[in-house]
Known about the structure:
The chain is mainly α and 79 residues long.
Amino acid sequence: MCFSIKRELTKEELKEKAKQKEKEKKEEENKAKEKEKRKREESERKEKEEMKRKKKKEKKKRHELKAKEKQKLKHRTKK
């Protein structure tokens, strides 16, 4: 009789261990998902910043080109 009680406790312990392992597995999956999400967000943020930089550079280039054209036009009209 005492043996069967001990065996039941072992079964309960095994169930608890299985639950704990399942819980740990889910936590690890959540951590991995969160890490992937942060990585993706960081990548998107960098991409946006790069696009902003490119647009700003393009705008500056266009502005300089317009200024040069204006200068040429002024120079031509002076002659």
